[in-house]
User: Fold these one by one.
Assistant:
Number 1:
Amino acid sequence: MKEKNVQPLRTAKEIEDMKWALRRYGSERDYFLFVFGINTGLRVSDIIPLTVGDVGRKNE
C-alpha cells in the first residue's frame, strides 16, 4: 500500500476553502468536527470520543 502524504492546512484561505468544501460536500457533523478541531487545537483522535456532556459551558 502506498504511504499517504498529508499536509496541514497552513493559511486562513486553506481553512476557509476546507470549511466551504465540507459545507457543500460533507455532512454537518464533519463540518462541526473540523471547526471544533480548528478552534480548540485538539486532534481528531481526542475529539471523536467526546460526548455532549464532556463539552461544558465556561460560565457554569
Note: The radius of gyration is 14 Å.
Number 2:
Amino acid sequence: MGGEPTSGAAGAPPAAAPGSGGTPKAVGIVWALLGLNTLGSAGAKTVVPLPRSLIQMATMGALVAAFALALALNPRLRIRASAFLFLLTLLLVPSVIASVQPDVGFGALFRCTRLAVFVGTLWLLSHWWDGGLTFVRYHIRMYFAVLVLVAAGLVVAPGTAMPEYYGGRLVGALWPLTPPQIGQYAAIVIGLAVLLVLGRRTTAGSAAVVVVPSLVLLAMTHTRTATLGLLIGLVLAIGSLVLTSAAARRFFAWAVLCATVAAVAFSSALRAWFLRGQSQENFANLTGRAKVWDALLAEPRSTGEKVFGTGLGDKSFDGLPIDNSWLAVYDEQGLIGVVVVAALVVVIGGVALLRPPSLPRACAIFLISYCAISSYTEVGLGDASAYLLHLALAASLLVAPAPPAPLLVAEIPRRRIPRWARR
C-alpha cells in the first residue's frame, strides 16, 4: 500500500524515520480532530439543545485545525506513496464534476471541499505511516473518549439517552449520536483492543477497562450491523493469526466453545434482541430500507447523472436515509464513484491478504471486514466519514516499513610512516 517517503522540497535535510519513535505526539491530536469531524451534526436530542449550526462549526473547525496542524508538523510536504490515498483522491473527480452543476446547490461544493481537506490531511499524515501500531492506539483512545461521553450522558439523563422514539436504544445525550454510530465506535474499540491483547501489546487488565464498558454500550444500542461486523471481523482477523500465534489459537477455541453454549442456552433471548420487537416482514424488509433502495434504482436519470452522480448530499433520497454505501455513492458520485470505491476496497483487501501474518495485518483485516459488512446498511465510503478513517488506519497498517538508513562510518585518516621505518 505504500512505498518510500517522498519530499516536496529537493535537498531537504533528512527527517526522523517514521514510526521509529519519531512520531510527534501532536499527530495523535490531528487524528482525534479528524475523528471529531466525522461525528456529524445530526442525531438524537441532547440534554442541552445544541444548534446544528454550532455543531457544524465545531466539526468543520476541527477539520481545518487538523489540516493546519498536520501542515505545521509536515511543512516540507513529505508524504508516502499510497494506492489507497491515490484512489481516494481520484474519488474527488466525479464528486466535483457532479457538484459544480448549477442546479445542485452550494451544499454539494461545500461537502466536496470538506472531502478534499480530509484527504489532504491524510496525505500529510502518511509520512508517519510505517506499518506500526501507533495509529491503532490513537484510534482506540479517540473513540473510547466518545464512548465515555456517551456513558456520561446515560448517567446524567438516562431518559434522554434511551428515548422512546429510538425504541429505547442508547443515543448520545450530550452530543447528538445515533445508536448505529455508538455501536460502530464500540465495535471498533472492542475489536482492536482484543487484537492488541492477543498480540501481547497490552495487558488483559488494561484491555478489560476498555472492552467491558464498550460491550455494555454496544448491547444497549441494539445495533445488529455493528455486532455482526465485530464478530465476523474478529473471526477473520484472529483466523489470520492462528498459524503463528498460540494465544490466537487458544482464544479462538474458547470463543467458539462459549459462542456455541450461548447460542444453545440463550437462543430465545438472542433472537428477541436481534429482532428488536420487529415483525418478520419488517425484518426481511430491512426496516424499510429495501423500499428506499428500490425507489432510488427506479429513479429516471440522465447519462451524466448515471456516470457522475447528482453531487454530494446528505445521503438521503426523497427525504429518507439511503443506508447503503454503494447506493449512496451511485446516487451522489455515479458509476465512476462506485468503480473507484470498489477498487479502493479490493486493493486494500488484496494487499492485506498478500502481507505475511502479523498483528498489524490482523488489525487491518478486522477494519476492512467491518467496513465491508457495514457498507450494506450504513453510508460513508464515498465521503469524509468514520468508515474512511477506519480504512485509512488499515492502509497505515499495511505500509511496508522503510529500510533503515545506512550508517555513515567516518573514514579514518591513514598515518604517514617514514621511509626509513618501512624498511
Note: Residues 7-21 have pLDDT under 50 and may be disordered.
Number 3:
Amino acid sequence: MSLALPVPRLRTLSPVLPVVAVVALLALPVSPGGEGGAGPADALSALVVLFCAVRLLRQRRRPLSRTAAVVLGLPVAGLALAAMGASSPGAGIGGLGRYLQVFVLVPAAVLLLIRDRSDFRLLAWSFVGLAGWQGAVGVHQYVTGTGASYQGEEIRAVGTFGAQDVMGMATVVSFGLVCAAGLALGRSSVRQRAIATACALGLLLPLALSFSRGAWIATAVTCSAQLVLAGLRRAVRVGAVVLAAGVVLVGGFGVGTAMLQERIGSITQVADAPDQSVTDRYTMWAAAAGMWREQPLTGVGLKGFPEHRDAHASLALSAGSDTEGAGAGYRKQPLLSPHNMYLLVLGEQGLIGLLALAGSWLALLVCALRGLLRTHRAPGLDCALVACGLLVWQLTDFLYADIGGPSTVLTAVVLGLAAWWALVGAEEAPGGEEPAGPAGHARALGSGGREEALGR
C-alpha cells in the first residue's frame, strides 16, 4: 500500500511548475561581458510553450475562450505587418519571434497552465523568492564594493545580471516586492500575510541600492495603487509602516545616503540640469518620435530603431553608456533602443502596432480591475492585488524601459499571471476560493469549450 502512495502525489503535481523553473533559472549568473540577450530562461520558456501545446492536444480541449484569444492575439496583426516592413528578413523574423514570445505565446501558456489560485500563489511566491536571492546578492555587492560602477565606485547592486544589464536586478526585485505587497494585503492566513509583509519590507533595501530611478517610480506608483485598492484605512496604516521602514533602512547606510539622495533628487532635474543619461534618453525619445512621423501607420519595421537612430537623433546623443564592474571590464555599451516601450513600438511598428499592443494591455488591466472589485471582500483579493499590481508596474515601467536582456522573460510570465486573473480567476463566483476543478476552467474557456474542458 505504501508503494502506491507516491503515484497520486505525482499526478497532482502542478502543471505550472515548468513556469516556476523559468523564474528559478534567472537566479543563475550571467557570464561577465555577455551581450545580455536571450539566455537559458528564454530557452526553457520555449519548452514551456511546447509543453502546454502537447498538454492541450492530449486533453483535446479548446485552448482559449473567444475573449482570451482576442485579447492575447490582438498584437499579432501589428507585429506581422511590422515584420514585413523590416530592413531584412532576418531582422523581421527575429523581431517577430521575440515579440511573440514575450507578448503572446508565453503569456498564453502561463494562463493555460495555471489551474487555480493555489497555482497562482505558487508562481507569485516564486517571484518573491527570486527577488530575495537577487536582492541578497545585490546588497552583498554594495557592502563589499563588487557591484557595477556608479560614480566611480563599484557599489551599484545588479545581482547576478552583471553590469551589462543594470536594470535586471531592479526589475526582479520590483516584481517580488509587488507580489509580496499583494499577498500581504490580501485576506489569506495571518502567517502568509506576516511573511509577505516581512519580504516586502526586506526588498526595499536592494531596490534602493539598485539606483534605478525608473524602478523606484514604478514601484512607488504600484504599491500606492495596491494600498488604495485594498482599502483607504489599510493604506494609511501600511503607508506609515513602509515610510518608517524606508527611513530606517536607507538612513542606516551612511555611505550610500548621499548618493541615494542625489539619485532621488535627479528625478526632478529633468529640465534644469539633466545628467547625460537623461539627455540620452530624451534624445532617443525624440528620435523614435521622428521615425513615427516618417512612417506614422506602420513604423520603420521591427528592429529598425538602431539603423534609423542617427538619422533622427540630435548631436546631444552620446556614443554609448559606460559599463564596468560586477566581474566585467570597462565597456562602451551602444544605445540601441529609446528606453521607452511605447515609443519603441510607435517608431518601429507605427500607430497600428501601438494600438494593438497597448490595446491588449489595457484590456487586461480593465478586466483585472473589474475582477478585483468583484472579489474585494473575498479570499482571492491577494491574487487580484498581485495581478493588478504587476500590470500597473509593467505599464508604468514601460515609460522608462523596453524589452531586452535576460529578465525580459519575466515580463512574459507577468503578463500570463495577469491574463489568468483577468480572464479566468476573476470569473469565479464571489467568495469562491478555488475553481471547481475542470469545470472552473470550462467557465473560463467559454460555453463552446465546456465539453472539451471536461475531458481533462
Note: The longest strand covers residues 328-333.
Number 4:
Amino acid sequence: MNRRTAPRAVLLAAGELLAWWAALALLWLVLITTVDTLERIVGASCAAMGALLARAGRRAVTWR
C-alpha cells in the first residue's frame, strides 16, 4: 500500500464500518421492546461485531 493512499483507505474503511454499525444498531433498536442501558450496550456491541463481519465478508467476495 502506498503511503499517499493509506490515509484514504483508512478513512474509507472507517466510513464503511460506521455505516454498517449505524444500520445494524438502528435495526437492533427497532426490534427490541425495552431500551435500557444494558440493552444499548449489548446492541452497540453486537452491531460493532456485525459491522466487522460484514466488512470482512464484503472484502472476501470482492477481493479487495
Note: The mean pLDDT is 87.
